[in-house]
Specification:
With 164 residues, the chain is of the alpha/beta class. It has one domain: Response regulator (Rossmann fold, 3-Layer(aba) Sandwich). Helix content is 37%, strand content 18%. Strands 2-1-3-4-5 form a 5-stranded parallel sheet, sandwiched between helices. The chain has a two-stranded antiparallel ribbon with strand order 6-7.
Amino acid sequence: MSKNPSFEKLNVLIVEDNFLMQQLLKEILRSFHIREYRTANDGADGLQELQTFHADIVIVDWNMEILDGIDFTRLVRTSSDIHDPHVPIIMLTGYNEAKHIVEARDAGATEYLIKPVSAKTLYERFCTVIEKPRPFVKTSTFIGPDRRRTPATERTNKGRRSTD
């Protein structure tokens, strides 16, 4: 990753129902010199924001009332009302079990970040989505960034497709 990528021109949407976590995330974004960000208190408000706010990155909490982060992510990926259904989504959560990481990935989350969040870990996720974007995949059962983090090769991919 580059030493100092510029985040100044990024538009970031924070979808988080906890006011103190919102404040922490805003402070971290300001430390990254990000000037354009908006907040939403739940997934429903976040979807509404995305209809008018062209976010470059979305940070979404998993556990919220009305519409949680998983459903929000699925709706972003499949809705025709969203300006950019390919927007990188960083799922923020206290869940650290593998089954939750898989569920977020399968919903279409780009990255996964376990609380407590730090400026360093959020910075690393921003660098990853900007410097190493993954191609978007759309199948009958999945819409989101390619689950593979490294390119498939003949050796690693053999026998994994129905055409093999």
